[in-house]
Specification:
With 343 residues, the chain is an alpha/beta fold. The protein is 41% helix and 14% strand.
Length: 343
Amino acid sequence: MKIYLDTLPLRTGHQIRGIGRYTEGLLEALRAAQIEVITCADDLLQAEIIHYPYFDLFLPSLPIYWRKKAVVTIHDVIPLEFPKAYKPGLQGNVNFLRQKFSLRFVKAVITDSEYSKQQIAKLLRIKLEKIYVVPLAANPDLKLNNSSSLKDVQHKHRLPEKYILYVGDINYNKNLPALIKAMTHLPSDVELVCVGKNFREKPIPEWQGLVNTIQEVRLESRAHFIRNLGAESSADLAAIYHGALCYVQPSLSEGFGLPILEAMQCQTPVVSSRRGSLPEVGGKHAVYVEPKPAAIANGVKEVLSWSAHDRKQWLSSASKWAAGFTWQKTAAGTIDVYKRVLA
């Protein structure tokens, strides 16, 4: 089969976000599976299937092709779950109607989790039998090096001795104000490290809300932001994960939650909210809590109370669980969808 994969996310700001990582990982895995993947738009007409690996609710990202079978990946519909926090405006609403119309001509929808499947069916009114769940996988380049490199990374990024970690964006659904407030329930020698390119001053409500919460609870000296990991980003991120007391995912909802798998892969305990798809991703290998400050803090305290033996056992089972998510499986699930469409 010949597949045209739209690689636009690799040429935009999405390149360093989840959509970009998904597009790149899928492209490499499909080619490794001996699938002929076309990425040049000039050769699009040679393809049997067109695959759009992203879907924007409020921008016209999905064209209508009358003569080609199309597949689209919709990672989540979180803005529709929290309409008061994600206001598209007049043009966004017009684009949303257009996007919904375009979906009528798509042969299959791929999504990351069973939770997202149900939400897509409900909020976009797509038949369940048209939606296929194909889980993602962590970046295989996130690997631990020797202990000396861990110390180098700690020094390079001025990491505190004891810290809990968050990796990702600052969107409303990430629930970062609750994570900030949770710090007030933890010992004063435990600090917070947040990694992500959007942890910088921006004229948006999410950033201002984060700053206001930090000032409100007087956490300025205990909150540390890492915006740019530099050229050795995978090695540095793996070391930052591994050095953390635990990784915390406080989200109100997620379509998947890759950092949970990344943390497990880097031998780091996970405390996660039990909302959205997160229990699907973490299985029985995360400490689940309600996405509220005191509950999040109690989850962290539970991890801190583990003996060295308990921590080792937990990390062993969690890393085995994370190893079950691979890009080879993602490619195989995607190819199965292609075959169904061609049939």
